[in-house]
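STRUCTURE:
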């Protein structure tokens, strides 16, 4: 599929395709053409031209999302191209904007917004080398520190120290890039490039380091906070975080697995949970909450009832919810506002079928994403599921892998899914009849790949044919056995893998030591 280009855009492509000529001619280019030339250069991966455009940027702001998004001259959105050549050229160009003393333009740049860059699985850039969120965090931090060193050592124009550019970015910090990010944040006051953290993700970090760096980010600006995987944050630490730091603009909060475990609650823990709920209630912008793999049985109301703003996204997958929890969700003021809901890991048909369908009917007019993985949905439940999903006319994404459904039931369900006009993405399970007889659900990791692959391929073809015959080529159907693509995990999987091996080794050594003492 080719996207139409205006004559202006075609001319811009021709201009930047000769990098030497374009770089020499920038001084004669009208200011309002810089955004057009930037997008053309990005499309053609002209790194040197991108660098020089940014180094000489004549406008007040530089917003990556807007510059690369759909424009009248070229409607294709390039913001999902995290091309390493282009992004590195952008960031080094920004550093050199500060250092450039011979620029013909008066330095007007005040705000650089890098938050519009989207990390996706499939890249279309020619170099095929991406620069993810972690690497962008690393490079910007490194360039800020280098810039300061250079300014302190070189004889710079006094005006250089007057430059103040706010750089809005989504930071992603792990053990491996922690030091360089801390150094950049500590020196923010004296650096012309001011890192402004809009979203913060931490993984594989000790609690001490997490608490230290989160205070450096200026939490008053933070809109999204993700504490994931290998940050061992438990309920008492979360209460400490909320008591010591205010997040007035926070819209989205993701907590790591096992933050809550009500099975070992004391009276003190109950009070702690109440305090956390009240603190979240003070976050008047909070509309997205993810608390997967915590044990929250019977406590959803205590945690969510203090919220004053309705949630648009809720992930309570594998949280051992009971009927009271589901009843609260179905009847709460959040229900009519939920655009994304994840209830994976709950035996919905057995535990609370009618309450779940009441919740579904309440959010049906706005629901865009529904995830029901490992929910024990069987063939006998498909007609009821179709009935519940029928009003969800805005549904764009439906994920239900890990459910014991037969090939026949999947075909029946797909025939219905074709009727949902906004649907774009479906993640469906390997049919039960592709596995050996007697397989038990949920299927463990050791058995998950032990199915008849040829039979699965035949069924997948038939399901895609159902979509094709209904003119729904726009729907992507897949079976990601080990979960959906996560750009952040993909980018740092080597570090996380090494951490897990180290943790396993330490646990093994402790066990061996204890065993030897017993012997």
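SEQUENCE:
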């Amino acid at each position: 599929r080719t996207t139409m280009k205006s004559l202006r855009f075609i001319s811009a492509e021709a201009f930047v395709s000769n990098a030497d000529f374009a770089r020499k001619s920038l001084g004669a280019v009208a200011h309002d053409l810089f955004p057009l030339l930037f997008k053309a250069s990005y499309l053609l991966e002209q790194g040197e031209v991108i660098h020089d455009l940014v180094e000489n940027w004549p406008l007040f702001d530089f917003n990556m999302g807007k510059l690369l998004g759909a424009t009248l001259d070229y409607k294709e959105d390039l913001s999902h191209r995290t091309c390493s050549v282009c992004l590195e050229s952008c960031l080094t160009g920004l550093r050199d904007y500060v250092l450039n003393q011979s620029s013909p333009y008066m330095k007007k740049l005040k705000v650089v917004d890098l938050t519009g860059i989207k990390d996706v699985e499939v890249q279309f850039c020619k170099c095929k080398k991406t620069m993810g969120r972690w690497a962008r965090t690393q490079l910007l931090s490194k360039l800020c520190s280098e810039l300061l060193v250079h300014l302190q050592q070189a004889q710079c124009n006094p005006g250089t120290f007057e430059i103040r550019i706010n750089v809005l970015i989504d930071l992603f910090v792990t053990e491996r890039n922690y030091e360089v990010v801390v150094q950049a944040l500590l020196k923010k006051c004296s650096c012309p490039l001011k890192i402004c953290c809009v979203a913060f993700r931490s993984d594989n970090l000790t609690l001490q380091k997490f608490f230290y760096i989160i205070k450096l980010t200026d939490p008053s600006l933070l809109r999204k906070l993700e504490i994931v995987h290998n940050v061992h944050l438990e309920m008492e630490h979360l209460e400490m975080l909320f008591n010591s730091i205010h997040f007035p603009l926070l819209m989205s909060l993701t907590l790591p697995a096992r933050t809550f475990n009500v099975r070992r609650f004391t009276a003190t823990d109950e009070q702690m949970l109440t305090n956390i709920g009240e603190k979240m209630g003070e976050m008047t912008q909070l509309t997205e909450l993810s608390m997967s793999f915590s044990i929250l049985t019977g406590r959803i109301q205590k945690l969510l009832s203090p919220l004053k703003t309705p949630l648009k996204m809720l992930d309570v997958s594998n949280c051992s919810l009971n009927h009271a929890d589901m009843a609260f969700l179905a009847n709460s003021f959040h229900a009519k506002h939920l655009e994304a809901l994840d209830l994976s890991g709950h035996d919905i048909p057995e535990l609370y079928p009618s309450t779940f369908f009441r919740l579904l009917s309440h959010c049906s007019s706005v629901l865009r994403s529904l995830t029901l993985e490992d929910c024990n949905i069987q063939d006998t439940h498909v007609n009821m599921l179709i009935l519940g999903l029928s009003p969800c006319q805005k549904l764009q994404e439906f994920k239900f892998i890990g459910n014991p459904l037969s090939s026949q039931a999947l075909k029946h369900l797909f025939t219905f899914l074709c009727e949902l006009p906004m649907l774009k993405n479906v993640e469906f399970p390997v049919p039960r009849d592709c596995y050996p007889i007697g397989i038990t659900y949920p299927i463990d990791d050791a058995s998950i790949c032990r199915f008849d692959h040829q039979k699965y391929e035949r069924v997948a073809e038939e399901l895609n044919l159902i979509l094709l015959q209904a003119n729904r080529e726009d729907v992507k159907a897949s079976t990601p056995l080990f979960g959906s693509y996560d750009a952040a995990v993909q980018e740092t999987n080597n570090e996380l893998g090494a951490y897990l091996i180290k943790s396993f080794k330490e646990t093994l050594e402790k066990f061996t030591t204890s065993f030897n003492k017993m012997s």
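REMARK: The chain has three domains: 7-131, 223-338, 366-502.
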